[in-house]
Every structure is written in structure tokens, then in C-alpha cells.
Inverse folding.
């Protein structure tokens, strides 16, 4: 699956560091999150008002089932217990006026230049969202 520009997400590790640094989150439809410490691995969840399940019909054909709710052992969880995983667009927006530029370096890595304490500083990562997130983390600290 190929992500559309701006929908690729921050890595779970950096998202956790942003949460621990105090990044506020007002959950919205489409937001993605991770539930740590529940033996769910690196599974990522999405907020949606409708659950769509891929399954086989009685003839063995693949179908999409539109369900109003899903029965699961975890009925709810407080947002403080999960890790919001912002998209590239969301983390760039959070950088606001601190953002200066994003470039792609030789070798495919991304470099985000952001103003941190008034000084243009470069943060390099394998993905654009992680470069933005590294800059945002520095701004928050």
C-alpha cells in the first residue's frame, strides 16, 4: 500500500517521545494511534465512526463488511494510555512558524530545517514525518 503525500506517519518510537514530552492530542476521525503495553506489537489503530472488515462471503469471495460496532475484549481506553501517531501533515502543522524547509538528501534521507530557540537547525531522518517530528521534539524541549 502506498501512502498519499502527507499521510505517512511518524514512527511509533518518535510518537511516544512526543507524547512523553507533552504533545497534546484532540482525537479526530482518521487519527492513528498505538496501544502500548498490551501485547499488541506495533499494531496501529485508526479512529473511525464506522468499522469496515475484510472477509470472505459464503462463496469464498473477498468482501468488505460495514459494521456499526465490533465486539472486542477492550471496550474503551483513555487517550492518555495510547500513543497518537501523527501524520506528516499534522506534525508539519504543529511545527508552525518554526518550520523553515524540508529537503531530500542524497541516499533518500529527509532533512527538516526548523528554528529552535531562534537558531535554524537541521534534523535528518529516514522519513519526512520523522524529520519533522525530530524538529518538533527539539522545539518542545
Amino acid at each position: 500500500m502506498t501512502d498519499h503525500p502527507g499521510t505517512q506517519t511518524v514512527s511509533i518510537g518518535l510518537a511516544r517521545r512526543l507524547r512523553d514530552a507533552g504533545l497534546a492530542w484532540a482525537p479526530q476521525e482518521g487519527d492513528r494511534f498505538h496501544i502500548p503495553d498490551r501485547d499488541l506489537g506495533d499494531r496501529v489503530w485508526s479512529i473511525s465512526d464506522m468499522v469496515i472488515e475484510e472477509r470472505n462471503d459464503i462463496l469464498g469471495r473477498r468482501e468488505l463488511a460495514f459494521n456499526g460496532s465490533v465486539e472486542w475484549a477492550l471496550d474503551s481506553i483513555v487517550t492518555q494510555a495510547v500513543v497518537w501517531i501523527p501524520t506528516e501533515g499534522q506534525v508539519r502543522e504543529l511545527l508552525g512558524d518554526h518550520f523553515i524547509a524540508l529537503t531530500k538528501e542524497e541516499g533518500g534521507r529527509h532533512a527538516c530545517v526548523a528554528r529552535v530557540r531562534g537558531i535554524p537547525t537541521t534534523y535528518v531522518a529516514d522519513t519526512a514525518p520523522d524529520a519533522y517530528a525530530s524538529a518538533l521534539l527539539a522545539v518542545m524541549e
In short: The two ends are 34 Å apart (CA to CA). The chain has three helices and eight strands.
